[in-house]
Amino acid sequence: MKDKKFIALGFATTIIASALFLSSSLFAKSDAAFSQQIGEKRLNALAKYTKVIQTVEQYYVDDQNISDIVDKSLEGLLSNLDAHSSFMNKKKYKDMKIQTEGEFGGLGITVGMRDGALTVIAPIEGTPADKSGMKSEDIILKINDKSTLNMTIDEAVGIMRGKPGTDIELTVVRKKEPKPLTIKITRDIIKIDSVYTKKIEDSDILYIRVTSFDKKVTEDVKQALSQNKGKMKGLILDLRNNPGGLLNQAVGLTDLFVESGAIVSQKGRLERENQVYNATKIGTYSDIPIVVLINGGSASASEIVSGALQDHKRAVLVGQKTFGKGSVQVILPIGQEEALRITVARYYLPNGRTIQATGVVPDIEVYPGEVIVEKDNFAIKESDLKKHLEGKLEQIDGKKENDEKKSDEKKNKKIITKEDILKDLQLKTAIDTIKVLTITNGFH
């Protein structure tokens, strides 16, 4: 890049000249003495930075290209700001654009930093990571034979992404497992269907699963609601293991259920980063009882939706505390081939609380697991009697036809069966909660 050539020719002169320009702009302030003091501090700091660069270039055991030294210093600077800020060189910037603009070969896993450890936020449903058994809150110790200690998120993602059909091994630490697990995953083209709609068997409850917030989420959910309008007495919105995505989709989805007031706000140092996103009354489903399922893999946009619905008392949250990712990042290009990903603001929910590092706490805390069912072998019911009365409905000819139709729907996974419900305690609790809300709100 031209910039780097310029740095190589006269790095120290450029830094000092920039510092003089920055300091001189401060003298326009009313307090000239204070401005001069600030300007001198900038000069001293930048002079120190220049001296360190020159020292490394002169004395380090291996030859170091000036451009590489600057890149490494920028990587260190950005990574020390927070876990989500980073410097993207030519390759990383290109990979980022491929990921956001089209398909890519990878695992289908979203990762973040938690207490300095590379942690799985969530595997995306239907991807190689999901099929291999990766779970939310798994801590990745190694990627192949490379330790993740001191590895940035971008470095980790860069290693995990690759040519479809190639294998990778992740060594992970998982809660309640006595020793680390080695999980082999085959990379594939990542295609994401973000919205799945199903019905709960023998009920008027609609189930909508949102796996990530891509550009069609609001539209797809709105279509599902429209198709079932007048037929549903309750809605279960499943945001478990949803790592987030586009802010406007989180706002749009929440707006489907909230008539007025703030949905989310963001605040940063710059005035342009301070924004409030409000609900609109048009097209609002304001009278449907809603339960939102969340867990430790629900992050960012998922936390905005669940937290806003909770603050507006529009939904009951069931499950576990969310991940706690409430910061806003933007991509700022540097020239044509490099860029900075930098945190510019934090999200705040309608009541003013922050998501960052705290997450959203469910109204009803339920841990994952199966529903324990104990059959009472000593109980005798009418159906057990030798000459019990046959139900007249059993004799209707159309019954068989209906059963066949239901069977086809189950095969196509459009129906969540009783067997499915018994395997998911959080879902069972959500269904029971919807039934209570339906009765208390007079929908029965």
- Main sheet properties: 7 strands, mixed
- Whole-number average pLDDT? 85
What is the global morphology?
globular
The CATH first-level class of the largest domain comes to Alpha Beta
Tell me about this structure.
It is built from twelve helices and 20 strands. It is an alpha/beta fold. The chain folds into three domains: 2-65; 104-189, PDZ domain (Pdz3 Domain), CATH 2.30.42; 195-365, 2-enoyl-CoA Hydratase, Chain A, domain 1, CATH 3.90.226. The strands form five sheets. It has a seven-stranded mixed sheet with strand order 19-16-15-12-11-10-20, with helices on both faces. α7 runs parallel beside α8 and α8 (247-255) runs parallel beside α9 (301-311). The model is unreliable at 1-29 and 391-397 (pLDDT under 50).
Features:
444 residues; Pdz3 Domain; 2-enoyl-CoA Hydratase, Chain A, domain 1; 7-stranded mixed β-sheet; 20 strands; 36% helix; disordered N terminus
